[in-house]
Amino acid sequence: MPPALSPSLFTENPARDARFQVKDRWIECPNLPPEHPHHQIEFFQRQMNEEINSIEASARCLTDFPDAEWELRLELARQCADESRHARLYRRLLESRGGYVGQYPVLNFQYRIITNRKTLVERLAIQNRSFEAGGIDAIAFGITAARQAGDHQTADMYEAQLADEVNHVRFANRWIRKSIEKDRRALLAIGAALTDTAIAFAEVMGKEATEGVSYPIDEIGRLDAGFTPDEIRDAVQIQAAERNATEHR
């Protein structure tokens, strides 16, 4: 049995009804290989639950920081609406392929990591600028793969989702930079939050889930989402270095 997750890095799981089997670590889930007939069903259900995590995390930003600027609160409310739409779309895909809610276990690590942070700028850096920025890369890759496989229903859904995710990252980038301009100490808070997030993510996913697994940086998507060319170049170089290190182990 794997050791418990570090309590200092995670909040409690969000509420789920009896249909859901909630696990703490990737290795506790089936993780069906791509050739398995239910691989896509498992993937769609996990993605549906991740979108629910995003709704919950964004909603918590609204309730936990009621004094945030109105324009930012409006963006967060829109994000809740977007993520709700994504969750419904993933459920529709899941059920259209013969699956059902609760068929496979789910993880709530994103919500548990994000809501563990005490400031809004930290949460935006983790949820939007980190997790959702990675989602831009994954979705762009998924669009191409789905089109090549002739699965245009999934590709169309991914394209609609990508447009929303780019906007979520863009508004977070804008507000994070504004926060840093107002108080440079926000940089220290963000750095600490991202360090803890990397540790927490490694605890949940383990080497089994992460070694050799990465999506190409979607440079166009990230530029549209408000990353600077230098930030994108750094991300590409870091990814290349990590891939090189994995290949030479």
Nutshell version of this structure?
The chain has a single domain, classed as Up-down Bundle (Ferritin). Helix content is about 70%, strand content about 0%.
List the helices and strands and how they pair.
Elements lengths: L21 E2 L15 H26 L5 H27 L9 E2 L1 H6 L5 H29 L3 H31 L2 H26 L8 H6 L4 H19 L2
Parallel strand pairs: 1-2
Helix pairs in contact: 1-2, 2-5, 4-5, 4-6
Using DSSP, what is the number of strands? 2
| Low-confidence segments | none
* Helix and strand element order: EHHEHHHHHH
Provide the CATH topology: Ferritin
Overall number of structural domains: 1
Descriptive notes:
This protein has 249 residues and is an all-alpha fold. The protein has a single domain, classed as Up-down Bundle (Ferritin). The chain is 68% helix and 2% strand. The protein is built from eight helices and two strands. The chain has helices at residues 39-64, 70-96, 109-114, 120-148, 152-182, 185-210, 219-224, 229-247; strands spanning 22-23, 106-107. Strands 1-2 form a two-stranded parallel ribbon. α4 (120-148) packs parallel to α6. The longest helix is centred in the last third of the chain and has 31 residues, at 152-182. The protein is globular. The protein starts with 21 loop residues before the first strand and ends with a helix. The relative contact order is 0.13. The mean pLDDT is 94.
